[in-house]
């Protein structure tokens, strides 16, 4: 860390100990705890880095950064849970048809604000999950096909798992930190 930079604070209900999902649980509990486990794991991959390091492209020629992954995951939470599943009329985050990769490539803005936005999207997603049955359906905007909350939660667990693998490599290249 440089002497003028400060670590990014990531206050949220996720901040704190990462809790393993219960090994014996009902379906809803297992899905919910698994998704929160992966959300917290991603947060831990970013912990203790200043904004410049979070935006560092450490795995050339890839442009992937922890900041870009953070923006992407905030956008994915909103797109799937709020827009497609709950049908909320809210704008996309970090996406436009003219620049569909801007979540990863346009790293403008304050990283702390990006964390706050991601945490707010996770909180809204949790509210939607709590208020919905696993069999309840949303509609894929691109195809008009229905999907269940169960399918969405499984998809999001996979989304986070995939991006945590990328975050592992990015973080290791930044400062050598490794871990689950």
Features:
Four Helix Bundle (Hemerythrin (Met), subunit A); two-stranded antiparallel ribbon; 180 residues; disordered N terminus; 53% helix; 3% strand; globular
3D structure, described in words:
The chain has helices at 27-46, 51-54, 66-85, 102-105, 111-130, 149-175; strands spanning 137-139, 146-148. By secondary structure, the chain is mainly alpha-helical. It has a single domain, classed as Four Helix Bundle (Hemerythrin (Met), subunit A). It is globular, with a radius of gyration of 16 Å. Residues 1-14 have low confidence and may be disordered.
Spatial order of strands in the largest sheet? 1-2
Question: How large is the radius of gyration?
Answer: 16 Å
Number of helices: 6
| E-strand count | 2
Instruction: Examine the secondary-structure arrangement and name the CATH architecture.
Output: Up-down Bundle
The separation of the N and C termini measures: 23 Å
CATH superfamily: dinb family like domain
CATH topology: Four Helix Bundle (Hemerythrin (Met), subunit A)
Low-confidence stretches: 1-14
Strand content: under 5%
Main sheet characteristics: 2 strands, antiparallel
What is the structure about, briefly put?
This protein has 180 residues and is mainly alpha-helical. Helix content is 53%, strand content 3%. It contains six helices and two strands, in the order H-H-H-H-H-E-E-H.
Helix-strand layout with pairing:
Blueprint: H1 27-46, H2 51-54, H3 66-85, H4 102-105, H5 111-130, E1 137-139, E2 146-148, H6 149-175
Antiparallel strand pairs: 1-2
Helix pairs in contact: 1-6, 3-5, 3-6
């Amino acid at each position: 860390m440089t002497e003028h930079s400060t670590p990014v604070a990531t206050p949220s209900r996720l901040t704190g100990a990462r809790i393993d999902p219960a090994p014996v649980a009902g379906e809803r509990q297992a899905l919910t705890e698994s998704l929160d486990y992966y959300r917290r794991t991603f947060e831990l991959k970013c912990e203790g880095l200043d904004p410049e390091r979070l935006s560092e492209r450490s795995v050339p020629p890839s442009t992937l950064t922890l900041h870009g992954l953070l923006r992407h995951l905030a956008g994915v939470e909103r797109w799937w849970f709020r827009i497609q599943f709950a049908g909320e009329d809210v704008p996309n985050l970090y996406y436009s048809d003219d620049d569909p990769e801007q979540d990863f490539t346009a790293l403008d803005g304050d990283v702390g604000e990006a964390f706050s936005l991601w945490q707010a999207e996770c909180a809204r997603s949790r509210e939607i999950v709590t208020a919905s049955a696993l069999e309840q359906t949303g509609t894929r905007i691109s195809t008009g096909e229905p999907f269940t909350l169960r399918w969405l939660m499984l998809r999001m667990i996979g989304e986070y798992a995939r991006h945590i693998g990328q975050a592992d490599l990015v973080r290791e290249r930044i400062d050598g930190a490794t871990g689950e």
